[in-house]
Prior knowledge:
It contains two helices and twelve strands, in the order αββββββββββββα. It has 222 residues and is of the alpha+beta class. The chain has a six-stranded antiparallel sheet with strand order 2-1-6-11-8-9, with no helix packed on it. A six-stranded antiparallel sheet has the order 3-4-5-12-7-10, with no helix packed on it. It has one domain: Sandwich (Jelly Rolls). It is 18% helix and 46% strand. The longest helix has 23 residues.
Amino acid sequence: MKKLFLCTLLASFVASVAAADSIEIVSSGATTITGSGSGITTPVSINGWNITTVAGVNNSPGLSPYGLDLTVVASCASGNCLTTPLDVFFSDTGFTASVPAGDFQTTYSGTLTGSGTTRAITWADSTNTLFGGGLPTGIGADHLGTVGPFSAPGGFGTASGGPAETGTYSLTIEEIFTAGTSGTSSFSTDANVIATPEPSSLLLLSSGLIGLGFMKRKVFQS
Length: 222
């Protein structure tokens, strides 16, 4: 009975943590679609944008192998999207991994068809609230990095930065899409934010790998 109670309690805790994340899709500031990090039911149409994939993965309270990851596949289907950029936000709370100043890293990659641009922005918020710091583009929050904009046919980039985070905080990724031609601008992108390994951690990992190499060599020689 005690074991069953503990398992039930653990399941409830995991469910509450998983429910903390949130996705928002915004275009023209007035239209918003929301959902959980597991993804919004797709396809979704908003102001001429067709969105076929939007999904986020988080590793709160840790940052390994990344804190947040956001995948988006979208295209400009009608004339409205030419004047209304698409913003997709993914946020989660409860991160507790301490990160020195400048050690957050934002990575963004994408495949673009037609004309248009896209960029990714990440930020932290020490008040530990979803999308904390204001929308759009993390106004008033701890900016971590901006990658892009890059244009068709695609691109890849990283950016490092941000102040130190030592308490409990939230993280947010924003992907911004601007179409160039109606009906032909399409995007398939992936953004994530991680904490770059400290030199001491890299040294420890290298030492471990070297040690494994010597052990392997010794085994083969014996």
